[in-house]
Amino acid sequence: MQRLMLKFLYVVAALKYSGIRRDLRYFIRDNYYSRLNQIRFVAKDYFTKGKYKVIDFHGEFDQELRYVLPFAYWHYLNGTLAKTISSTNTKAFYFFSENHSELYEKRLWQAGYDYYDVPNMTHSPSFSFTKWARVPLKSHYRNKQFVFRKPILVIANKYNVEWDKPPVNFLDIPDLDRIVSTHKLNYQIIYNRPLSSQIVVDNSEIMDLNEHGWLRENHPEVILMNDLYEQHHNAVDNFNHLQLLIYANCDRFISMHGGTAALASYFGGINIILSHTGGGMEHHFNEYDTIFPALSGAKILHAKSTDELFQYLSAYY
C-alpha cells in the first residue's frame, strides 16, 4: 500500500512541479507522504490529547533541527509529547521534553530516509507548519554569563567532507583574516568550529583546517569556542549546551551550509549563510527564503560565493 501511494504521489508532484528536475520530485513526494501519514493521529492530536507521542531520530543534525525538533516542540505545546530519543548530547535542544533519552552515539544519514513520522521530513518547495512550532532556544538560554563589552559576532565555520567530496562550504584562513581584521573593532568575535570529539558526527568526516592555532597567534582578541569550552566545561553540560548559551546572546552570525547554518538560524538577528551555487538541495527549493527564516524569524542572507558573503558583511555588519 505504501509503495502504491508513493508512486501516486510522485505523479502528483510531477504534475504540480512539471518544471522541476525529475529526481527532485522524489523529495516532494516524500514530504507529501509524510503529511498524509499524520492523518493517522488526528484523534490523538486533537481530541483525546494524551501524552502518547514518542519521537525517535538519529539522522542528520540539519534534518533534526529543521523538522524534528519543531515537531517535538509542537507536541509539547499540544500536551501530547511522551518521550524524545536522539543522539548523545542533545538534551539541551530538547529542554522542554520531560523524558529525553540520548540513545545513539553516532548519527546515520540513512536514518533520515523513509522517516515519515514528521510532517516535513526532507527538502521541499513548500512546508507544512501545522504541527511545527518555533523552539524558543534564544529566550530559554539567554544569559548574563557570556556578555562582553562589544556585541557578539559568531563565525560558525566548518571544514568537512560534503556529499562524499572535498570541503566546499567553508572559510579558509585568508577569509578569516579579512573578516576579523575588518570587524574586530565593532564586535567580540567568537569563532566556532567544533572538533569531532565535541559533537556527534555523521558521514561527513571533519578535516583539519589548522586555523585554531593561527587565530590564537595572529588574532588573540578572537575568542575560540573550543577555548571557552575548556574554561567552562565544569559549568556546562557539554559542547552543545555551551553553543546554545553563546548563540542565545548573539544577533549576528556567519554560518556554513548544513547543520551549522540551521543552528545559527534559531537565534534571530541576521545570519549570513555561505552555500556555494551547485551544492545542496536548499538552492533548488529556495529554502533559505522559507524554512530557515521560519526557525526564529531571523533575517537570512544567502551568500552563493565568498565574494557575496563579503558584500553582505559590508552592507549589514
Please provide a written account of the structure.
The structure is a single chain. This protein is of the alpha/beta class. The chain folds into 2 domains: 121 residues, no CATH class; 177 residues, 3-Layer(aba) Sandwich (Rossmann fold), CATH 3.40.50. The chain is 38% helix and 14% strand. The protein contains 13 helices and 9 strands. Strands 6-5-4-7-8-9 form a 6-stranded parallel sheet. A 3-stranded parallel sheet has the order 1-2-3, with helices on one face. α1 packs across α2. The protein is globular and about 60 Å long.
Keywords:
Rossmann fold; 2 domains; six-stranded parallel beta sheet; globular; 317 residues; 13 helices; alpha/beta
Q: Please count the helical segments.
A: 13
Main beta sheet: 6 strands, parallel
- The fraction of residues in strands falls at 5-15%
- Ends: how far apart? 53 Å
CATH architecture of the largest domain: 3-Layer(aba) Sandwich
**Helical residues, percent:** 25-40%
Oligomerization state: single chain
What value does the Rg take, in angstroms? 20 Å
What's the overall geometry? Answer: globular
- Count all strands and give the number: 9
CATH topology of the largest domain: Rossmann fold
Integer average pLDDT: 93
